[in-house]
Amino acid sequence: MAVKLFSPYTIKGVTLKNRIVMSPMCMYSSHNEDGHIQNWHRTHYTSRAVGQVGLIIVEATAVTPQGRISPQDLGIWNDDHVEGFKELVNSIKEHGAKTGIQLAHAGRKAVLDGEILAPSALEFNEKSKTPKEMTLSEITETVEAFKKGAERAATAGFDVIELHGAHGYLINEFLSPLSNKRTDEYGGSAENRYRFLRKVIDAVKTVWDGPLFVRVSAHDYNEEGLTPKDYVTFSKWMKEQGVDLIDVSSGAVVPARINVYPGYQVKFAETIKNEASIDTGAVGLITSPIQAEEILQNDRADLVFLARELLRDPYWPRTAAKELGVEIETPVQYERGWL
Question: Which domains does the chain have, with CATH numbers?
Answer without folding.
Answer: 9-326 (3.20.20.70)
